Amino acid sequence: MEKIIFTGGGSGGHVMPAITLIKKIQATTEWQVSYVGGRDSIERSLIAEYDVCYKPITTGKLRRYFSFQNFIDIFKVGIGLVQSFFYFLFKSPRTLVFATGGFVSVPVVIAAKLTGKKVFIHEQTSRVGLANKICSKFADKIFVSFEESLNYFPKNKSFHFGYPLRDECYEREIHRSHFKDFSLKEEKPLLFLTGGGNGSLLLNNLVKNDLDELLKSYRVIHQVGKAFISEFEALGSTDYLPVAFVGSEIIDIMKSAEIIISRAGAGTVCELMALKKRSVLIPLKIAQKNEQFHNAMEAKNKLNSLVLSEDELAELSILKVIGKFSKTSKEEQQYDFPNGTEQILKAIKAVLE
Q1: What's this protein's family per the entry (predicted)?
Q2: Structural domain for 223, as ranges
C-alpha cells in the first residue's frame, strides 16, 4: 500500500495545511497516512482528531539568533534525526514525505532523504522560514502559497500552487448554526478575535481591558490560546465565548463574523483572502523576517484590510480599532485566490500511483 508521511508543527499554522491534505487523501484514496511530530506538541493534539498513525520524536528549536538553548537543542535535533532515520529505514521506497514547515520537520526531512524517500515541502508564508530553507536543500519538489516566495527557492523544483484550503473557503453557505452552543446567527453582530493557535497576550489584553463596553455592541468569539484559557473562561458569558483553539469550525465563524481581528499567520490570511473577507490584521512583530507583515500586506493590497503594527495597537483601545476599521474603504481588487489542494494532490498522485 502506498504510504505518505506528513511532518510539520510548532504552531497551528504549520499543521492546518497538512490536515486539509490528509482529510482529502482519506476521503479519496486508500493510501496509508502517518504523521511525525513532537511529543508534547500542538501538532500531536490536532492530529489526534483524525485516524492517523502518529510517530513522536524529540525536537529542538532552530533559532537565527544566539541563545544558550541552541547548544541543548542541537542535540535534540540530532536525537530526532536518529529516531526518524530508523523509522524510515524499513519503510517502502514508495513512501513520500510531505513537510509543512516548523523546526520538527528538519530532522524528518533529512532522514527521509538519507533513506531514499521522495520529499515534498510546502511554504505557507510570503517569506521563507529557516526550517523550510534547510528542508528545501533535501526536497524533490517545493510548493509555495505566494508567487513572491518562488524567489527564495531553486526555480527548477519550485511551484506556485497556492495554500491548501478547505473547500468551504469557496462556498457561500454557512454549514454550522452554532459553535459550542454559541449561536452564529443572531441580530447582534459577531466579532471574531484570534491570536493564532497559541494565542496572543497583546490581543487578549486588548479585549479584557474593554470587554464590558465591547459586549454592548457585539457578540464575541475569542481564540485566546491554551496558555490563557483558564483566565478567560472566568469572563465567559452569553455574548462572550473564549476558547483555547478553534479547529475546523473557523471558516463558518469567519463567514458569520461582521468584524475579524487577527494575527497575520499565513493560513489565516490565505483563508480570509479566499473568503474575500476584509479584516483587521496585527502582524507578530518578532516573526521571522517580519513574515506576518508581508502576509498582511497581501490582504491589504487585495482586500483593503486594515494592517496595524503592535506599536500602533498599543496606543488604541479595541473600540478605537473597530472605529478605525469602519472608516477604511471597502473597495477591493478583483482577484481569484488559488486553492493549492488539488494541484498538490495531483503532484502526490504522480509519485504514489
Answers
A1: Belongs to the glycosyltransferase 28 family. MurG subfamily.
A2: 169-326
DSSP string, 226-264: TTTHHHHHTT-BTTEEEES---TTHHHHHHH-SEEEE--
Is residue 125 in some structural domain? Answer: yes
The answer to whether the beta carbons of residues 120 and 141 sit under 8 Å apart is yes
pLDDT surpassing 80 at residue 288:
no
Residue 61's pLDDT band, with cuts at 50, 70 and 90, is confident
13 is in an annotated binding site: yes
12 is in an annotated binding site: yes
Cα–Cα dist 245/284, whole Å: 18
pLDDT recorded at residue 197: 77
Together in a domain, 26 and 152:
yes
**For residues 166 and 153, what is the distance between their CA atoms, to the nearest angstrom?**
26
Under the banding of pLDDT at 50, 70 and 90, the label for residue 70 is: low
Structure confidence at residue 129 as a pLDDT band (50, 70, 90): confident
Same domain, 199 and 152: no
166 annotated binding-site participant:
yes
236 and 311 together in one domain? yes
Residues 282 and 348 in one domain: no
Does the structure show a pLDDT above 80 at 291? yes
- Written as one string, the DSSP assignment of 185-235 is --SSPEEEEE--TT--HHHHHHHHHTHHHHTTT-EEEEE--TTTHHHHHTT
d(CA 196, CA 225): 7
User: In this structure, what CATH number is given to the domain that contains residue 310?
Assistant: 3.40.50.2000
pLDDT level of residue 11 (50, 70, 90 thresholds): confident
Assign 148 to helix, strand or coil: helix
Q: Please tell me whether 292 is known to bind a ligand.
A: yes
Q: Based on the domain organization, do 26 and 153 belong to the same domain? A: yes
